[in-house]
Each structure stands twice: as structure tokens, then as C-alpha cells.
Design brief:
single chain, two-stranded antiparallel sheet, 2 helices
Length: 81
């Protein structure tokens, strides 16, 4: 599930939930796939920058559409979830 905003602080924090277990990098790979689908980019364009072993992560999505990000932050639908 990709969509919605966590808290009211800036910069905004996008909610993302995956069902994969947090073992052997499975959850991170599932997150990358879900974010790629939600933003309409290839998975190779999504990078977990920090938080590899944490629930809170910073990711970089190369070529992400700001309008799509705003829609997702508002809780709009995503193809990933």
C-alpha cells in the first residue's frame, strides 16, 4: 500500500506498507517494487538512501512526477496497492 501522509511535518512523509518479511532484504525489495509501480518508473530508478534496516527510510525516486507524489500524499490510489 502506497499512499497517505504520516504526520504534518515538512518535508512530507509518504506512507508505504509492504507484506514481505523484513529478512534478507525482502521488505526493501518489495518497497522498491511498490514505489516504482506507484510512481510509474522502473525499479532501477528507486534507491533506498538510508534506513535499510529501519522502518523509516529515505528513498530517492529518479524521474518521479511531483503531481503524482502530491496525489499519493493526499491518500490517492496507487497501482501498487
Amino acid at each position: 500500500m502506497i499512499g497517505g501522509r504520516y504526520g504534518a511535518a515538512d518535508p512530507p512523509v509518504l506512507l508505504a506498507r509492504v507484506a514481505a518479511p523484513a529478512t534478507e532484504g525482502r521488505a526493501n525489495r518489495a518497497l522498491v517494487e511498490a514505489l516504482a509501480a506507484a510512481f510509474g518508473v522502473r525499479p532501477q530508478r528507486v534507491t533506498v538512501v538510508t534506513g535499510h534496516s529501519n522502518r523509516m527510510k529515505i528513498v530517492d525516486i529518479e524521474g518521479a512526477d511531483p503531481a503524482r507524489a502530491a496525489r499519493l500524499l493526499e491518500g490517492g490510489p496507487s497501482p501498487a496497492g
